[in-house]
Amino acid sequence: xxxxxxxxxxxxxxxxxxxxxxxxxxxxxxxxxxxxxxxxxxxxxxxxxxxxxxxxxxxxxxxxxxxxxxxxxxxxxxxxxxxxxxxxxxxxxxxxxxxxxxxxxxxxxxxxxxxxxxxxxxxxxxxxxxxxxxxxxxxxxxxxxxxxxxxxxxxxxxxxxxxxxxxxxxxxxxxxxxxxxxxxxxxxxxxxxxxxxxxxxxxxxxxxxxxxxxxxxxxxxxxxxxxxxxxxxxxxxxxxxxxxxxxxxxxxxxxxxxxxxxxxxxxxxxxxxxxxxxxxxxxxxxxxx
Length: 289
Fold this sequence. Notes:
Elements: H1 3-7, E1 10-16, H2 23-28, E2 35-40, H3 45-54, E3 58-61, H4 68-77, E4 84-88, E5 92-94, H5 98-108, E6 112-119, E7 129-131, E8 138-141, E9 148-152, H6 153-159, H7 171-181, E10 185-196, H8 207-230, H9 232-255, H10 259-276
Parallel strand pairs: 1-2, 1-4, 2-3, 6-10
Antiparallel strand pairs: 4-9, 5-10, 6-9, 7-8, 8-10
Helix pairs in contact: 8-9, 8-10, 9-10
């Protein structure tokens, strides 16, 4: 198979936020005849200069502000001129021939919106499958982890891109819901594999602030997703356990004098309350360059 021809059908999108400590590892593992667009959400012009100087197939775009993950992907998608695009988290390690296998499957699977490689060391629940045929290595899915996603651009133009009201978390749930609603299938490809580094896509120097931000947005976005698609009171039903769990842990850590942990659970409460009162997803990481 002539993978050079296949590669011309593909553009890769990476969203970077203080990820310069690892992003080159991923770029080095990708064939240099594939166009790579990096959305540099930490607004660091040195990252742009460095990456574009080192890699001829890389274009770094610096937005006017931190767009979040979905918004960053959307910006990258606006520059895609190929038939397919592949979003990758900066902290993943590609398995052998992962990209080639995904591109092969685009020829064999006709009605799809998204193809996803299989994340190693992640346990896929039965409720994530629409059709789990254990004798097959291709599965129709309700949900897949959002670390590596191959998009058919024709399908995305029908569904719309990620909802930019969501800064972080649940943006993929919302997109999958719209894809499936239009009958555009999502597939997990067992043969294509990758490893994921978890929270390592951002410089660990900023860990506590990153965890505060993630806790806030996880709770805000969870309620927003269920309210948007299923109604306000269903959103309350799905998130009230999060509220009481966060409240209980906040009180415990507050009284035991653990300021760091109490602040993490206060962040969850603040995200939920903001979402309950229909406020925008306003929190941003407090990190200075």
